[in-house]
Write a structure and sequence with these properties.
single chain; 715 residues; alpha+beta; Arp2/3 complex 21 kDa subunit ARPC3; Beta-Lactamase; 5 domains; 6-stranded mixed beta sheet; membrane
C-alpha cells in the first residue's frame, strides 16, 4: 500500500517536470521510486515506477519511459538486496545500461534530430543522480523511513567507514550536481540573452540600412526628375542625362525615360536593348503601375517587388517620378524610372554571414520573398512559408521553422523587423549551435562530476578510516578488559585527539561504571518492588469504590466480558441482579450522610459474606444500588439464594455513628438468569433486572423478582 501511495504521489509530481533548456526537463517524481526500491526491493519499486512513469506519459506522450525507468527501478531494487547503495547503483545502471538504451530508444521512437539526442540522454543520466541522491538523503534523514516496518534489511551490518564514506559522497555529489546545473542554467540564460540582443541589433541595423538604401534612391529619382524638368532643353539631351545619372547610381539595374504616351525616349544601359525585336515588343510601359501612378497622379511612386519585363528576369523595385514642362510644372511630359537592384542585401548578408552564422529573409507586403540568404535555399518571389515554433522546447528565444513547418523540433532562432513600406525583415540563425553549447556544458559538468565523485569517495573513505579504525581498536581492546588490563599504548600518535581522549576516559572510568552499575541495579530492584506495590494500590483505587471497597461499575462492566466468554465455553448460565436499599433517602435525611455511608459499608460486608465465590462479581452500581454478576448459576435455587441475602440483611442491626440509635435495612432485588449466549451487551441484562427491581418496588419493596430466560423464551 505504501508503494502504491508513493507511486500516486510520484505520478502527480511527474506531471509537472521542471524546465531547464530546450526540450530538457528535470523530473523529481522518480525520487519516490528510488525510495520504494531502497525500502521494499525491486518488485514494489517496479509498481511505483509504473505509476510514476504514467505521469511522464501524460506530459511527454512517449511510452519509452515505462521501459527505461522500469529497468532502473528493478536494477536499484536488486542492488538494494545485495547491499549496494542506491547512488552507486544508479551510476552503474546509467553508464552501463541506461544511457545506451535511452539513446537507442530515442533513435527509434523520438521525434528528435540525432544531434539533439546526446544532450537529452546526458541530461537524463544527471537527472537520475539528482533524484537518487535526494531519495537517499530523505531515507537517511527521516527516521520513520529507515525504521519502516517491512523494509528490506541489510544482509550484513555495514561498517562505520562505509556509512561515513557514502554519506559524505552523497552530500557532495548532490551539492555538485545542483551547483553545476545552476551554473549551466544561468550560463545558458546569459547565452540566450546575448543571442537575442545580437539578433535584435542585427535586424535593426539591416532594417535601417535597407530603409536608408530605399529612401536614398527614391530621393535620387525625385531629384533627377526635378533636375531634368528645369534643365530640359531638347529631346536629344534626355539620353545623355539618363546615362550620366545611371553611371552615378549603379544600384539601379536599369533606368528609363518616357514621353507622355509611355514610349521610351531614353534607356540605360543601352546594351539591354540592342535586340531590335525585343525592343519593339517592350518599348512602351504605359500599362505599368509605375507609369500610371507617377504620370497621372503626379507623385513619386515606389512599386511592389516584381519581375522585370524586357530588362531581365530579376526581382526589382520600380521607382518613378514625373518630370514636367519647364514653363508649367503642373503638366507632366513623362516619367523617369529606375529598377532598383535588391541584391544590395546580399552585400549586407555577406558581412554578417562569416562571423555570426546569421541569415536574412526579406519579404514584401504580400509576404513574397524578396531576398533570402543562399544557405536557406529559398526561392525568390515565392510566398514565405514558415511556422512560429510553439512546441515543448523551453527557451526565452523566438523560434521559427522554415524548411519543415510541421517539425516538433525548432530549426532557427529569429528576430523580426518591419520596414516603413510594409516589408518584413527576418534574421535567423540555426538553433542547433546553441543546443550544442548546452550539450558541451552538460558533458563537461558530468565528466567533472564523475572525477569529483571518485575523488570524494577516496578522500571520504580515508577520512572515515581516521575515525573508524581507532574506534574499532578501542572496542576490541575493551572487549578483553574483563580478563586483563591494558599494559601498553593502544593508539598511536595519528589517532584523533578526541578519540584518544575518549579512550583515556573510558579506561579511567571503567571500574567506576561497574560500581555504579551494581549500585544502580540495587536501587532499580528496590524501586521496582516499590513500583509494583504502588501499581497494585493504584489498580485497587481505579477498580474499587473507596467507600465500600467493592468493585465499581467500570470494573464490573469490563469483567462481564471475560465472565460471559468463560460461561459460553462451559455452556453455563449467568445471573445479573440489581440490589436497591429501601427508603435509603429517608435514612440520609433523618440520620445524616454519615449514617447512610455506614449503612452502605454494612451492606457491602453482608454481600461479600453471602456471595463469597471467587467468580462472583460484587460491585457498587451507584448511590444505594449494588450489582451482582453471578456466573455458573442454577436457575432452580438462585432466587432462594438471593432471598437468603435479603433476609440476612434485614436481621442486622446497624449502629448510627456518634449516636446510640440502631436501625435495620430492607432491600429490593431485581434479577435475570439466562444462558451466557443470551446477549453480549451487559446493558440488555441490566435493563431486565432494572425492570424487575421497579416491579419489586411497586409491589411493596423488600422482595425479589427474578426473570428466567430460557431458550424457548429467547425464541
Amino acid at each position: 500500500m505504501f508503494s502504491l501511495l508513493l507511486g500516486v504521489v510520484a505520478l502527480i509530481i511527474n506531471c509537472y517536470p521542471i524546465p531547464f533548456f530546450a526540450n530538457v526537463q528535470f523530473i523529481l517524481g522518480n525520487t519516490l521510486t528510488v525510495i520504494s526500491s531502497i525500502l521494499f526491493g525491486p518488485w514494489y519499486a517496479l509498481l511505483t515506477s509504473i505509476l510514476a512513469s504514467t505521469g511522464l506519459v501524460i506530459v511527454w506522450d512517449s511510452f519509452h519511459v515505462y521501459i527505461i525507468f522500469g529497468l532502473e527501478a528493478l536494477f536499484l531494487g536488486f542492488c538494494r538486496r545485495r547491499d549496494i547503495y542506491a547512488l552507486y547503483g544508479s551510476v552503474i545502471f546509467w553508464l552501463v545500461f541506461g544511457m545506451p538504451a535511452f539513446y537507442l530508444l530515442g533513435n527509434l521512437f523520438f521525434d528528435l534530430p540525432n544531434n539533439h539526442l546526446p544532450f537529452v540522454t546526458l541530461k537524463q543520466a544527471i537527472n537520475s543522480m539528482i533524484y537518487t541522491s535526494i531519495a537517499s538523503l530523505l531515507v537517511l534523514s527521516i527516521p520513520k523511513l529507515w525504521r519502516f516496518k517491512g523494509r528490506i534489511k541489510d544482509k550484513q551490518r555495514r561498517s562505520l567507514s562505509k556509512q561515513v564514506t557514502y554519506f559524505i559522497t552523497l552530500m557532495i555529489t548532490l551539492s555538485l550536481l545542483l551547483s553545476a546545473l545552476l551554473f549551466n542554467f544561468y550560463f545558458l540564460e546569459r547565452q540566450q540573452q546575448l543571442v537575442k540582443v545580437n539578433q535584435n541589433e542585427t535586424v535593426r541595423h539591416i532594417a535601417y540600412a535597407g530603409e536608408t538604401y530605399l529612401e536614398n534612391h527614391i530621393k535620387v529619382i525625385e531629384n533627377a526628375a526635378y533636375l531634368f524638368t528645369i534643365t530640359n532643353d531638347s529631346p536629344t539631351s534626355s539620353q545623355a542625362f539618363l546615362s550620366n545619372l545611371h553611371r552615378n547610381y549603379p544600384s539601379f539595374i536599369s533606368m528609363l525615360m518616357t514621353n507622355e504616351k509611355g514610349n521610351f525616349i531614353a534607356l540605360s544601359p543601352l546594351s539591354k536593348f540592342q535586340n531590335p525585336d525585343e525592343f519593339k515588343l517592350n518599348n512602351n510601359v504605359k500599362d505599368r503601375d509605375y507609369f500610371i501612378e507617377s504620370f497621372y497622379n503626379l507623385r513619386v511612386y515606389v512599386s511592389s517587388v516584381f519581375v522585370g519585363r524586357g530588362f531581365g528576369n530579376d526581382a526589382i523595385v520600380a521607382m518613378s517620378a514625373p518630370y514636367f514642362d519647364k514653363t508649367d510644372h503642373t503638366k507632366a511630359l513623362g516619367i523617369i524610372e529606375g529598377s532598383l537592384d535588391l541584391n544590395y542585401f546580399d552585400k549586407i548578408d555577406y558581412d554578417f554571414e562569416g562571423m555570426r552564422n546569421q541569415s536574412i529573409v526579406l519579404t514584401d507586403e504580400k509576404n513574397n520573398i524578396i531576398y533570402a540568404s543562399n544557405q536557406l535555399n529559398l526561392k525568390v518571389m515565392t510566398p514565405f512559408h514558415y511556422a512560429l515554433y510553439k512546441g515543448r522546447y523551453q527557451t526565452t528565444l523566438d523560434l521559427i521553422n522554415i524548411n519543415n513547418t510541421d517539425s516538433s523540433t525548432p530549426e532557427y532562432i529569429y528576430a523580426k523587423s518591419e520596414l516603413s513600406n510594409g516589408w518584413k525583415l527576418y534574421i535567423v540563425e540555426p538553433f542547433t549551435p546553441l543546443l550544442k553549447i548546452a550539450e558541451n556544458q552538460m558533458l563537461n559538468s558530468f565528466a567533472m562530476l564523475l572525477v569529483a565523485l571518485l575523488l570524494t569517495f577516496y578522500i571520504s573513505n580515508k577520512i572515515s578510516q581516521l575515525l573508524s579504525i581507532p574506534l574499532e581498536m578501542i572496542a576490541n581492546q575493551f572487549s578483553q578488559l574483563a580478563q586483563s588490563s591494558t599494559k601498553h599504548q593502544l593508539l598511536d600518535d595519528n589517532a584523533p585527539r578526541e578519540v584518544y581522549s575518549l579512550y583515556e576516559t573510558l579506561l579511567a572510568s571503567k571500574q567506576q561504571l561497574i560500581d555504579h552499575q551494581l549500585e544502580l541495579e540495587n536501587i532499580v530492584a528496590i524501586r521496582t518492588e516499590e513500583l509494583e506495590t504502588a501499581n497494585t494500590k493504584l489498580k485497587e483505587l481505579v477498580d474499587r469504590d473507596p467507600l465500600t471497597a467493592l468493585y465499581n461499575r467500570r470494573y464490573a462492566e469490563h469483567k462481564f466480558i471475560e465472565t460471559r466468554e468463560f460461561c459460553l465455553r462451559s455452556e453455563q448460565a449467568i445471573t445479573v441482579a440489581v440490589v436497591d436499599l429501601d427508603f435509603f433517602k429517608a435514612i440520609n435525611d433523618t440520620y445524616g450522610h454519615l449514617a447512610g455511608d455506614e449503612c452502605l459499608r454494612q451492606v457491602a460486608s453482608v454481600l461479600k459474606q453471602h456471595f463469597k465465590r471467587d467468580i462472583d462479581i460484587i460491585s457498587r452500581y451507584g448511590g444505594e444500588e449494588f450489582m451482582l454478576i453471578l456466573p455458573m448459576s442454577n436457575a432452580l435455587n438462585i432466587e432462594h439464594h438471593l432471598n437468603e441475602f435479603r433476609l440476612k440483611l434485614n436481621q442486622i442491626l446497624i449502629s448510627i455513628p456518634n449516636g446510640s440509635q440502631q436501625l435495620t435495612l430492607t432491600c429490593s432485588i431485581g434479577a435475570i438468569i439466562a444462558n451466557a449466549n443470551y446477549h453480549h451487551d451487559l446493558d440488555r441484562w441490566i435493563k431486565i433486572a432494572d425492570d424487575n427491581l421497579y416491579q419489586a418496588k411497586a409491589q411493596g419493596r423488600n422482595r425479589t423478582i427474578l426473570t428466567i430466560i430460557s431458550p424457548e423464551t429467547e425464541s
